[in-house]
Design brief:
The complex is a heterodimer of chains A (about 140) and B (about 100). Chain A has about 140 residues and is an alpha+beta fold. Chain A has one domain. In chain A, about 35% of the residues lie in helices and about 40% in strands. In chain A, strands 1, 2, 3, 4 and 5 form a five-stranded antiparallel β-sheet that branches. Chain B has a domain of about 70 residues: Vaccinia Virus protein VP39 (Rossmann fold). Chain B contains three helices and five strands; from the N terminus they run βαβαβαββ. Classes of the chains: A alpha+beta (about 140), B alpha/beta (about 100). Chains A and B meet through helix 1, strand 1, helix 2, strand 4 and helix 3 of A and strand 1, helix 1 and strand 5 of B.
Chain lengths: ~140, ~100
């Protein structure tokens, strides 16, 4: 990660901007919305090792004087799905890429909630995103 | 059937606050299949989008709307060795990729 950030510094023009946008290291909440009412069913069981490693990489390039922090913000981001199959596909990707334990229990919760619901029901996974805006500092005339 | 990411468009609103993207040369590192790439192009940026996964790059190219054809180019490559000139971009974006 540090190498990738150094490469970004290399290709950026003087005073260029680096945007680091990614999910906050908190567990996403999953629920259903029916007739405007949200009901939470559970939380994902993510691992945050990669997030902490990314934070360390950013801290390192700041320490090296390659960038300075301009500003930082955090905001909510939702994923809205219509069917259990869509939710299962999303969770399966999540589990595979993140080397996570099975989330079949959560898929079953969602499936039960959809069966029991009356009217149009949507599945919602939500969690905050963090955006850091860094400004390139010149090092050795580069 | 549909999976909608960020229906409130909070992500793009936050990005709008970063800069005036119109005409800016942007490198997006870890673009996946180009979901955010198209949003950046929609803000007027000229985006070079990089991802190590060739399948994602292929999907991005196939899903590139004609109106963005001159604003977006997809490249398979590694973040640690970018095949671009030094000091050639106004902005670099790591979106869900660090």
């Amino acid at each position: 990660m540090v190498h990738a950030l150094r490469e970004a510094h290399r290709v950026l023009k003087p005073n260029g901007i680096l945007v680091d946008l990614r999910p906050a290291a908190v567990h996403r909440r999953v629920g259903v919305v029916c007739n405007g009412d949200y009901r939470q069913l559970g939380s994902m069981r993510e691992k945050f090792d990669d997030d902490w490693a990314a934070n360390r990489a950013v801290a390192r390039i700041l320490h090296e004087g390659l960038f300075k922090t301009d500003w930082r913000t955090q905001f909510d981001c939702r994923r809205v799905m219509d069917t259990v199959d869509e939710f299962r596909s999303w969770v399966d990707d999540f589990v595979r890429l993140g080397d996570l334990p099975s989330h079949d229990w959560l898929i079953e919760e969602v499936e039960s909630a959809l069966k029991a619901s009356r009217g149009k029901t949507k599945i919602v996974a939500r969690g905050p995103l963090v955006m850091r805006v860094l400004r390139k500092l010149d090092v050795g005339g580069q | 059937m549909a999976l909608i990411v960020d229906p409130e468009q909070n992500e793009i609103r936050a990005l709008e606050r970063v800069a005036d993207w119109r005409g800016k040369r942007v490198i997006e590192i870890g673009c996946g299949n180009g979901r955010l790439t198209l949003r950046l192009a929609g803000l007027g940026a000229r985006v070079h989008a990089i991802d190590p996964d060739e399948e994602s790059i292929r999907a991005g190219r196939e899903g590139l709307p004609r109106r963005f054809a001159r604003h977006v180019s997809y490249h398979a490559g590694q973040a640690e060795g970018l095949a671009f000139r030094t000091t050639s971009f106004d902005l670099a974006v790591f979106a869900w990729s660090l």
